[in-house]
Amino acid sequence: MVAGGGIGGVTAAIALRRAGWDVVVLERAPELREVGAGLSIAPNALRALDAIGVGEDVRAAATPSWAAGNLRLPGGEYLRRADPEHDTALSCFHRADLHRLLADRLPAGTVRTGATVTGVSTSAAGATVRYRTAEGEHEIEAGLVVGADGIHSTVRATLWPDAPAPRFRYTAWRGVTRPGSVWPEDGTFTFGRGAYFLAHPIGGERVYWALGVHAETPGVRYPDDLAEVRRRLTGWHRRVGELLDATPADAVLHNDINDLGALPTYVRGRVVLLGDAAHAMTPDMGQGACQAIEDAVTLAATTGDLAAYDAGPARADPRDRLDGPPEGQDRGVAIQARPPDAGPRHAPGAGVDRAQGDRQGVGLDTARHRRCSGRTVTARDRPRRTRFARQYPASVQRWRGLGDLPGGWGRCVVTIGVFDGVHRGHQALIARTVEVAKNRNLPSVMLTFDPHPSEVIRPGSHPAQLTTLRRKAELVEQLGIDVFCVLPFTAELSRLTAHEFVHEVLVDRLHAAAVVVGENFTFGHKAAGDVALLKELGRRFGFATFGAELQGGSMPDGEAADSGEITFSSTYVRSCIDAGDVVAAADALGRPHRLEGIVVRGDGRGHDLGYPTANLSTPRFAAVPADGVYACWFVRDNQPGRLLPAAVSVGTNPTFSGRERTVEAFVLDVDEDFYGQHVALDFVGRLRDMVKFTSVDDLVEQIGDDVRRTRAILGLDG
């Protein structure tokens, strides 16, 4: 049960539901309506929101403000101006807009409005919450109670009766206005004697402003707040006056600003405080909502074993219980009790897929939250290789985005690229990455992208795809990579400058100790960064950079690739496949080119001819070899170790005046139904071009010859 339906409360509900819990939110207001003024969300809170799947929506709805970098004096002089290359913009909203965006993520009925919490009592099994509605007094039993009911928290007052009362700090006025064309600023923060004035754009041509003033006595009120603000800001620069001139008198809010002293613990039994109920802070810090969001997401990630809460925070390290209890053991008490027939605690796709080792539920980047909680991350905090191996013993870890970073993540060695095909050049790069990681006793991470960056930057230019994501993960696992991380390539990501990409992805998220890339590696908006810049940024941020030489080799016809004429690259492999030269492609890949697909029903003509074929429906961008007939190995998904010989036709079946390009495989010596199965073809050799025969008999005779040659190429003719 969550007490309080503000931003911290609804974020907690989203995060806890995502982690598999049933949640009820009790909110004393009769309805969720537009209240408050503006607020800013800093990167630490955005990263927490990323962990529960709402970060992108929040970013899309936000308006950037550079107020934290545009610092001015009352006369208008700039102490400094924001530098977008190095500063970070704040994401700004009207409070009601952000609250609505988050609340809409919850199912109807999750938030019970008009419900005022009046008391909480704890027990060994959970807690009892008493609350009042228009219908009377009620009680609810809960396995966990989250006090998100603000600075004047009833939950806090009930269970921490001796806690310090809120402390008066200063008084403040806030307003939201629409200044129109007279406000060209992108956010400012002006400091005067005993006062500050900040302004953030919050979207919809609105600007949020706030005046904070030192005051000796709380509770003083004024008949005309706007007039009082004007009086106190007389003589300040003209941008201040423009905002006040555009502000209606009834749009000004006046409040005394309080904060709270620290408690020894914010946990008592099965009750925990978050946000302002735990550690209210003054708004000039810009972290009130941010810390509530971080609290909520971190809490959701640490409730796998609720017994740890009973031990108290001094003895219960959240990093040691992120993955929940051992297999077969209950996760603990749900927030709201379920009936016996309610089904599984976790919806499909939630929780932990232990066979894969992937963390799918909350997907919390806990390393980030450790930093944001006020603790400094030190070398002692970072996991040793043995700990990494203990958490993930089975196979390469597959992350879909950086939100899947596991708890306790420390430093690592990273290699970056699309790695389409995982050809011999990629293999050398990956081997170097694994070597550097082993020498440093750190996990190795391959950071790749989906979709292909070309499709986002230049829609319609997606190159032929040599390997699916799944195949790519299988290949890099064989090469010893520990983590296969697929970063969704979005328009937003493409606009990150080289500096931003390094800071936000490599440093802030992955904690890279070393980065291994090819010597022609580029990165950042418009590929502005290169290996030299990466090395420079590495020196600044504390990671090593290795620029590996491009790889070439001896080609099948004996031509030397080290002459500079041929270098192993995805583009080169695509050109080989496009020309039907699957032998050259295999030499560059270090294995036959593989084409995957689902077996679908064809026209049945092969069966009538005595050579029934499996017709493949291939992925949209798959690299299909040039028209012709090929000797292949046929591999079924459910029997990956069993290779079946196959003669494969690629083309339009010109003998029968076909128009649609198809891939048809005649699997030798097997009489099975492959329909609906996911299969793969490994192209070993090319038999001939696609030919239009004058008669069906001639075609059948040629197919017989194709089968004999297939056996010979695959070494089965004996």
UniProtKB/TrEMBL annotation:
Protein name: Bifunctional riboflavin kinase/FMN adenylyltransferase
Residues spanning the membrane: none
Record pathway: Cofactor biosynthesis; FMN biosynthesis; FMN from riboflavin (ATP route): step 1/1; Cofactor biosynthesis; FAD biosynthesis; FAD from FMN: step 1/1
CDD domains recorded: FAD_synthetase_N (cd02064)
Enzyme class: transferase
Comp. bias (Basic and acidic residues): 316-330
Catalytic activity, EC: 2.7.1.26, 2.7.7.2
Location of region: Disordered: 310-362
